[in-house]
Amino acid sequence: MKQRLFLVAFALAAITSNLKAQTIIAWKQATSGGFSYKYVTGDPTHSRFYKLKNGLTVILSPTNKQPRIQAFIVTKAGSNTDPADHTGLAHYLEHLMFKGTDKFGTTDYAKEKPFLDKIDALYEQYNSTKDPEKRKEIYKEIDKTSGEAAKISIANEYDKMMASMGGQNSNASTSFERTAYTEDIPSSSIDKFLTLQAERFRNPILRIFHTELEAVYEEKNRGLDDDNRKVFESMFAALFPNNNYGKQTTIGTIEHLKNPSLRAIRNYYYTYYVPNNMAIVLSGDFNPDVIIKKVDTHFSYMKAKPIPPYTFDPEKPITAPVKREVYGPNPEGLTIAFRFPGAATRDARLLDLMGSILTNGKAGLFDLDLVKKQKMLSASAADYALKDYSVLLLRGTPIKGQSLDEVRDLMLSEISKLRKGDFSEDLITSIVNNTKKDKIVDDESYVNRASNLMNDFVTNVDWRYDVATVNELSKITKAQIVEFANKYLNENNYVIVYKHQGEDKNILKVEKPPITPVEVNAGKQSDFLKQVNAMPQSAVKPVFLDYQKDIQRAKSGNTELLAVQNKDNSIFRLYYRYDMGSWNSKLLPIAAQYIQFLGTKTKSAEDFSKAFYKLASSYSISAGTEISTVTFSGLQENQAATIKLYEDLLANCQPDDQALEGLKARMKKARENAKLNKSALAQALVSYAQYGPSNPFNNVLSDDELDNLKAQDLVDILHKLNSYKHIELYYGPQTAQQEALVLSKLHKTPASFIPYPEKHNFVKIDADQNRVLFANYDMVQAEIYWIRNEGAYSAQEAPEVDLFNNYFGGGMSTVVFQQIRESKALAYSTYAYYLTPAKKDDRNYFLGYIGTQADKLNESIKSMNELLTDMPESEKGLIDAKENMRKSIETDRITQDDILFNYLDAKRLGLNYDARKTTFDALDKMNFATIKDFHDQQLKGKSYSYCIVASDKRVNDDDLKKYGELIKPAIKQLFGY
């Protein structure tokens, strides 16, 4: 054992030495393709930083892993720059940037403009009027005029253009310091994309405003139901009394939401959406010399303007703990926050390292002392880096019977250890090695690359430091960390927020205004849309998997090994996959949790955690309903040591009664918390609707069974795990034959496997009549789900299912979103899918959803039911749906270990081919009649289970009984405990 530890230490020292010997990382200047740019030497992402003549920053990071591009268009303007009398304005504008310009989003802007001008003036009048009755009259006129304007506008035309060019994940977000617009597009669509974006930012028209305003109201109400958001806002208000981080929130106050000003929004746009305050960040499959010319051509029209400086008074030091209390229905918890300098400082980078010393998921002080020893249900530390200041966040959840003050003392005691240097210097070396591994994985993703580059632009962080992270961390000593901790962390300079479980008496719901549904003109098109769609783009041939060619096969002992070789770097991922889960044994998921708290005769649980973390490796055991998986990941050079550690733990783990009692206490508290979680309540109702009172969700040990559980029962399961049949899945630098040879020596299996425990199969039930399953939860909103079990899975139906979902309810350009959100402003979030099962002998099912204000429940249900009865026809919508599917499949590349899981998923469905090819080949043969027949046969006139989570103070039984038999399952029946 000593020799093995010496070899590990020697390897780590060699890695650190190599890091120090690396080339100096510095900014350099270059010129290519007629444009000058900066780059950082040694940057594995090969990112280029351009500054156009008008001040627009363009950051390009090429990678050819997939024929797609992740794009961010970002402006350094967020809620921090909202006017104090119009908070939430930046967020409003974000929503309105999807509404089009004078060239798109309208059938005739000249006819539309007088109505928009009138709406503009009416909102100014509304904004300045205090008399409630006069406000109602003005709003009636706003609603009437908006309806007239909407007859000329075209809702969601932006989303339709993005869908038709194969865009995915079209979205935007607003935070303190930026508003970012994000798109994931085929690289072949770059010309269409840039044409659309250049027009989008040229002259945005603030149309279809009052329904979008209602969507923001819905978002605000969702926030009022979100205890985490309330904690966050309370904490920031206490930390930053002089900075807009604390003085105002991103979504704004209710008073300001009720009194919007289109003129203020427009003025904000022309103030901050200027090229010298913006960046275009692209990462993906492209030639940067070509792309920069295209970007310059499209965006050179923008004119630079001076940006008003954001100023604030520096925060005064916190000299005594600042206490805040938050109430809500969610479980109790505690948050402690310390203030640090901004993201661009060296101290912010040290803060990131210090956060990892406290929490890294394996060997941090919180991980080992609080979680591993089960002193708390959960404990974590994380840094939150912003431009003006950064924050160290400590979060803790108590075990049963533990007070929040006890949670506070436990977390602060770990901070005290940090200040005293009561941690191993090896921990810093381990963090460096894990950071090295994480950066390799992060840089593989074109999406992550773009996100990291965008965040650095917003916070003024020098990209050079990102590239140099591993090198820089390797030079930091324990003494420096201790000095740093003592500088910024003491017993009094923090904000502490107590989240109590109970009624929040301060909630003021944003009331529902009367809205007449507006036209969405789904079948109409602007000339600009036709122009964009007619633009040529290079053809991309789809690449489908050939399971025989793309997967290597070998035998490791009597175990089948499936492998895909990693030819890019030294990362490996290995899986042992078992065809058994909680349906075979309710104890299996508990054993999977229990192992992390166990040791052997020679090593403690803490020893194992530290050893895995030193190797920059990880393992986990997850038990699903029918499949369980052991997962390993790390650097290939440490794979053998990683597997040896795991095999030692699995074979030799010892029963630990104290650890089991701690686990039982954790599980009981987690169970109590689940009953206070609206998402868990919704899951329970949906499972009840699909399977009946006895279902996969409540297939757990009862409280009595949990109390009587013995440590030896769980250890026996773990000791036998390798004796059950499983397959090995490998993604890494070695071939299948090489990996099989390694595993045959390390992963010992018996000559013949023992049979799996007998499985309890849950079967989906038929709905012969409408039912309403209701769970009471103290919240402003109502969560409504439509559930219907459908017929047996058929591979032949897959193409029409995919097309139906893309047309009907699977995105922002679909019928459901347009009708329920855009036309009627009934929800912030809504969708509807026809879903296929994971295995061929199971059934399909339909899932619809609306999250809405409780007082809109009846309108929302009526609206979705109308769509389930009669699906609107839009030939243009169908064409866009088909084009989105076509281009998505053409540019979708299944790579790495996803190839293995795609094969296994297909196998469970009885397929031996890539199902995407069937869908692709069928696209041209399908028309509206295809999905109309599908809709009418599967959904129209059918019985549904309505699963509703809402407050019984806001929703009454008589309303619920309109929709079917009302059932209010007991909480114990829903959860099984």
Task: Explain the overall architecture.
With 977 residues, the chain is α+β, with helices and mostly antiparallel strands. It folds into 4 domains: 63-273 and 510-534, Metalloenzyme, LuxS/M16 peptidase-like (Cytochrome Bc1 Complex, Chain A, domain 1); 322-501, Metalloenzyme, LuxS/M16 peptidase-like (Cytochrome Bc1 Complex, Chain A, domain 1, 2-Layer Sandwich); 547-746, Metalloenzyme, LuxS/M16 peptidase-like (Cytochrome Bc1 Complex, Chain A, domain 1, 2-Layer Sandwich), CATH 3.30.830; 771-975, 2-Layer Sandwich (Cytochrome Bc1 Complex, Chain A, domain 1). Helices cover 44% and strands 18% of the residues. It contains 39 helices and 25 strands. The strands form 5 sheets. The protein has a 6-stranded mixed β-sheet, sandwiched between helices. A 6-stranded mixed β-sheet has the order 14-15-19-16-18-17. Strands 22-23-21-24-20-25 form a 6-stranded mixed β-sheet, with helices on both faces. Helix 32 packs antiparallel against helix 33 (857-869). The longest helix has 20 residues, at 109-128. It is globular, with a radius of gyration of 29 Å. The two termini are 45 Å apart. The model is unreliable at 1-22 (pLDDT under 50).
Map the helices and strands.
Blueprint: H1 2-20, E1 27-32, E2 35-40, E3 48-51, E4 57-62, E5 68-75, H2 89-96, H3 109-128, H4 132-150, H5 157-164, E6 168-174, E7 179-186, H6 190-200, H7 209-224, H8 227-239, H9 244-247, H10 254-257, H11 262-272, E8 278-284, H12 288-299, E9 322-328, E10 333-341, H13 346-358, H14 365-372, E11 378-385, E12 389-397, H15 404-420, H16 426-444, H17 446-459, H18 463-467, H19 469-473, H20 478-488, E13 494-501, H21 527-534, H22 547-550, E14 552-556, E15 559-565, E16 571-578, H23 587-594, H24 605-614, E17 618-623, E18 628-635, H25 639-652, H26 657-674, H27 678-691, H28 703-707, H29 711-720, E19 726-732, H30 736-746, E20 771-776, E21 781-792, H31 798-808, H32 815-823, E22 829-835, E23 843-853, H33 857-869, H34 875-891, H35 898-908, H36 915-922, H37 928-938, E24 945-950, H38 957-961, E25 965-967, H39 971-975
Parallel strand pairs: 4-8, 9-13, 15-19, 20-24, 20-25
Antiparallel strand pairs: 1-2, 3-4, 5-7, 5-8, 6-7, 10-12, 10-13, 11-12, 14-15, 16-18, 16-19, 17-18, 21-23, 21-24, 22-23
Helix pairs in contact: 2-11, 3-4, 5-34, 6-12, 14-15, 15-20, 23-29, 31-34, 31-36, 31-37, 32-33
